[in-house]
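In the design runs reported in the main text, the only information available to the sequence generator was the tokenized backbone. The following block is the verbatim input for one such run; it is reproduced so that readers can re-run the procedure and compare outputs position by position.
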């Protein structure tokens, strides 16, 4: 049975806004099923006219209707409620309460008697659904149905299917009492539901079973009477057709529409070897084990997959999947319900929209996560095998407004990114991903298919002069010529003399002026035509020279370009700029939908390109400034090369965005020297830096690419420990590659990462050492205006010109880091003249030390206890050693920490404080000397009976000190009032940044020395405290 509720209107609602009005909406709930109406702004007598339907599982339930006022800042305000028991509807003869006004009630009886207003509803119970497709899936999500025992009932009721899918008439039981059953059905239903509460007890489903069987009997009778109804109900209600038959049904109903566009962000865009139908069956077929394998990989439990069911007369299908997501560090295990709906299935293209609800998470009822799977034919392969492209995008669909929207979106983005990374890995184990070389090998065939038809001179002239201006000028010229032939010579008068005929009236002056202007326009058009005819060859077909990174661009066509000429058309041409070199296309005259089919090859480059600028101009003549029709940027670092093999690029700019202009390009980037290009690049950088640069292993490069989401051709050159200076210095690591400079930090569980291109850097300045920079020089990197927007969260300041400034300090080997960064910057972004000038200004300083080893990535340190003792002083006295007092200075100097300097504690979160510490080791503490920069974070214990101080320590000038960081955790608990003492526990862990064969030796040495140092430090604290007394 289905409950239909039509929410019509409300009147005399309370005013909750300052303007004396409200923003009301209605929430409906039946069991665990929920629905929500739209919001009517600023209205105390709103009109909705919205209909909702619910599946009835338990007749003893109540329909709850709440009227609320939407509040974008605080929680929504309560305006009133209505409770309607289902038994009240079942008591009526026609199973309907009709249309009537219901008085809104307060939340509880304690509320003061007020007039909350009224709401007008139409409430009806229906035995079967004749307008919509009946729902026959065996189980539903929490948000849609709480009862899930229909499968067994339907197995008993429906007749068997014939071979052609229609119901066999012989299978329909002939019952003499069918007419009486049909005629008395409403009364029987009412009687059955009344008796339900008397005799059923706990066996709810048994009591309802007879009611549902009556529905099935009636459906059977109608099936035997009407073949059309029989066929529809057999397909939509009582059929168990295979997945292939279901796809064929949707394919036959497909109307040839376009594939849906991408949602908010792209999670995966990859091509695979195999037909689109095979990939679709692997992911979505009920017989496939892909989802079960993915659930095991991700730790998902209680996976339940329901069968597909046809909807919308066979045009789409839907299924529901329920599962329990594995717990993470931040979120406990939660139950999720996923509705998958086929939006398109035509045999070649498939689109499936998945809507995921997680009501158990915080604010889970406020949003749905939507993921769109698009499967389409991929690029052609040389082996003539089929390929398919899988494009997965996502968005957050917020059902209610909330202040936590940004936080929810960021959390969902990171979770989806991690989840679909595992999805892609598992998928690649079942179907072969299309390698870049597979598409690259087909590059010649793709480019050979492009035919550039060169317009003839006459055709070009017709297109250029075939407009109103040119044709009207020709007509006027003929008219004037005929007039001259027919007119008699005028009499010389006024200031005229033979050979000079002046206008004799104002009208003749105006006509002469118009003719002169028209003639000037025609002459300008002729000049533009001659210049354009000379330039129409462009750079198309010019072959690239040399070996290295070879960039090839196929300019196919443009769409919806802006019209800037008076004729309503434009004369567009395209300019490509990459690594300081340009390529220009031919000019297409008088068109807004130009067809180029031209190929451009850039000469081989030693450095892999990062960006390519695409500018579209309108040709106005050889001496006039060109009008921009739009521009775009192609980012090779953030784009997948397989995606660039055939792409529509939207143009930016006022004219382009207004017209939604775009270009179709095919871009190919090939490395003709293989692995040699990497070694040659490193050799060149070694000459610039003046030291050996080691070639990193494939595992290291893979970890680097995964960390920043880089394409597979990017490789790591070097990485350095440093501090990112913002409001508070953040200890992390700086990564350098041929095209980017990136920063990553994982401090106390808070991860920060960003990167920007070398070409985005406008200037790099060296800041002299100061006390704030822990007596170490700093690097100030200034980006160009409008660049590096994605890395804005890492910038220290933004100047008045809109340039981002990044401040890096406390390098372990500043000279090596500075020299490497300057060399890479010069190689990527400076002109030859600027490079020569900088080389002349640089000193030939000798470099010492080397940062080598393989990068292992940032990992959490395994903590172990190195000191535990009871200190005979109170907690306040003990905390003075971390308070920046003179006691701290004396104690640290006595344990061998000289030049001890600290910053003040600054709040970073509620009850969380942070500061920076710098000192040098005394020779008695370390024979190598060395410096220490550390970040300390202080927070109270949960019972506020003590403090926890966490410290991340970086060693500089210590042998192999750049290979690891030290993590310390001090836990100090007050034992008062039992004892005037404190319990101190200190744990230490080593976070390895690079691999070394001396790890065990270093670990043993660090733990023993730290334990002795901590013992001496707290012993000195006790002595100083006793002296103070």
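Verbatim output:
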């Amino acid at each position: 049975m289905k409950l239909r509720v039509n929410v019509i209107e409300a009147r005399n609602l309370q005013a909750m806004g300052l303007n004396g009005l409200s923003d009301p909406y209605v929430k409906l709930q039946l069991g665990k099923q929920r629905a929500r109406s739209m919001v009517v702004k600023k209205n105390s007598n709103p009109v909705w006219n919205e209909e909702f339907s619910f599946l009835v599982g338990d007749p003893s339930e109540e329909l709850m209707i709440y009227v609320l006022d939407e509040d974008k800042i605080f929680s929504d305000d309560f305006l009133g409620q209505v409770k309607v028991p289902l038994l009240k509807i079942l008591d009526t003869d026609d199973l309907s309460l009709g249309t009537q006004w219901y008085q809104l009630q307060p939340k509880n009886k304690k509320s003061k008697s007020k007039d909350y207003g009224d709401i007008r509803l139409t409430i009806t119970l229906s035995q079967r659904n004749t307008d919509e497709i009946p729902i026959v899936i065996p189980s539903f999500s929490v948000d849609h149905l709480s009862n899930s025992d229909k499968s067994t009932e339907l197995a008993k009721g429906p007749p068997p299917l014939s071979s052609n899918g229609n119901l066999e008439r012989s299978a329909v039981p002939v019952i003499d009492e069918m007419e009486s059953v049909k005629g008395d059905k409403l009364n029987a239903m009412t009687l059955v539901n009344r008796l339900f509460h008397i005799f059923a007890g706990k066996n709810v489903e048994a009591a309802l079973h007879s009611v549902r069987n009556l529905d099935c009997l009636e459906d059977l009778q109608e099936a035997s009477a009407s073949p059309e109804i029989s066929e529809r109900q057999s397909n939509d209600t009582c059929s168990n057709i295979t997945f292939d038959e279901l796809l064929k049904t949707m394919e036959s109903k497909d109307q040839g529409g376009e594939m849906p566009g991408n949602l908010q962000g792209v999670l995966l865009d990859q091509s695979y070897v195999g037909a689109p139908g095979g990939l679709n069956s692997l992911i979505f077929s009920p017989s496939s084990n892909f989802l079960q394998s993915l659930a095991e990989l991700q730790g998902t439990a209680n996976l339940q997959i329901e069968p597909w069911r046809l909807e919308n007369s066979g045009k789409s299908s839907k299924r529901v999947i329920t599962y329990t997501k594995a717990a993470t560090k931040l979120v406990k295990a939660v139950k999720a319900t996923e509705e998958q709906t086929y939006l398109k299935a035509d045999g070649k293209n498939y689109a499936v929209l998945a809507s995921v609800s997680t009501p158990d998470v915080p604010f889970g009822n406020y949003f749905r996560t939507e993921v769109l799977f698009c499967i389409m034919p991929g690029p052609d392969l040389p082996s003539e095998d089929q390929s398919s492209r899988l494009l997965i995008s996502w968005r957050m669909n917020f059902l209610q407004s909330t202040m936590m929207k940004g936080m929810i979106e960021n959390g969902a983005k990171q979770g989806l990114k991690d989840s679909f990374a595992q999805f892609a890995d598992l998928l690649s184990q079942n179907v072969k991903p299309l390698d870049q070389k597979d598409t690259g090998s087909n590059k010649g065939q793709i480019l050979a298919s492009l035919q550039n038809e060169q317009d003839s001179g006459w055709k070009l002239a017709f297109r250029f002069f075939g407009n109103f201006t040119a044709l009207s000028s020709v007509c006027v010229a003929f008219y004037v010529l005929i007039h001259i032939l027919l007119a008699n010579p005028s009499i010389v008068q006024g200031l005229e003399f033979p050979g000079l005929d002046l206008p004799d009236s104002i009208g003749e002056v105006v006509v002469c002026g118009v003719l002169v202007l028209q003639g000037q326009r025609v002459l300008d058009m002729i000049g533009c035509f001659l210049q354009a005819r000379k330039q129409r060859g462009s750079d198309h077909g010019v072959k690239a020279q040399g070996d290295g990174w070879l960039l090839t661009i196929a300019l196919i066509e443009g769409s919806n370009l802006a019209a800037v000429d008076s004729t309503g058309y434009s004369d567009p041409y395209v300019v490509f700029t990459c690594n300081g070199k340009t390529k220009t296309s031919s000019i297409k005259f008088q068109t807004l939908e130009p067809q180029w089919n031209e190929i451009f090859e850039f000469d081989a480059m030693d450095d892999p390109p990062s960006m390519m600028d695409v500018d579209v101009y309108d040709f106005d003549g050889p001496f006039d400034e060109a009008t921009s029709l739009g521009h775009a940027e192609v980012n090779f670092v953030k784009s997948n090369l397989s995606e660039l093999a055939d792409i529509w690029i939207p143009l930016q700019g006022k004219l382009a965005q207004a017209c939604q202009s775009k270009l179709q390009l095919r871009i190919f980037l090939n490395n003709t020297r293989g692995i040699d290009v990497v070694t040659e690049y490193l050799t060149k950088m070694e000459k610039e830096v003046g030291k050996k640069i080691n070639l990193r292993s494939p595992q290291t490069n893979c970890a680097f690419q995964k960390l920043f989401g880089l394409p597979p051709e990017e490789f790591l050159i070097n990485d350095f420990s440093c501090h990112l200076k913002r409001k508070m210095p953040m200890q992390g690591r700086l990564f350098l590659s041929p095209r980017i400079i990136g920063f990553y930090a994982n401090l106390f569980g808070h991860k920060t990462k960003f990167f920007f291109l070398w070409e985005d850097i406008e200037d790099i300045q060296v800041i002299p050492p100061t006390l704030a920079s822990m007596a170490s020089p700093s690097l100030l990197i200034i980006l160009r205006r409008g660049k590096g927007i994605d890395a804005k969260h890492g910038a220290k300041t933004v100047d008045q010109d809109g340039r981002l400034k990044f401040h890096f300090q406390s390098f372990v080997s500043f000279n090596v880091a500075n020299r490497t960064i300057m060399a890479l910057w010069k190689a990527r972004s400076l002109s030859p003249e600027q490079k020569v000038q900088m080389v002349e200004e640089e000193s030939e300083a000798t470099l010492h030390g080397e940062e080598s080893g393989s990068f292992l990535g940032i990992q959490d340190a395994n903590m172990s206890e190195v000191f535990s003792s009871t200190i005979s002083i109170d907690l306040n006295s003990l905390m003075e050693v971390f308070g920046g007092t003179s006691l701290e200075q004396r104690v640290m100097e006595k344990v061998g920490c000289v030049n001890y300097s600290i910053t003040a504690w600054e709040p970073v979160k509620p009850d969380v404080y942070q500061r920076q510490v710098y000192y040098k080791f005394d020779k008695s503490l370390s024979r190598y000397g060395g410096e220490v920069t550390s970040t300390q974070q202080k927070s109270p214990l949960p019972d506020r009976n003590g403090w926890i101080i966490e410290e991340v320590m970086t060693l500089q000038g210590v042998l192999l000190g750049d290979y690891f960081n030290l993590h310390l955790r001090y836990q100090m608990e007050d034992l008062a009032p039992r004892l005037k003492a404190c319990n101190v526990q200190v744990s230490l862990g080593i976070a390895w940044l690079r691999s070394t064969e001396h790890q065990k030796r270093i670990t043993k040495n660090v733990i023993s020395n730290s334990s002795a140092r901590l013992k001496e430090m707290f012993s000195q604290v006790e002595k100083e405290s006793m002296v103070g007394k």
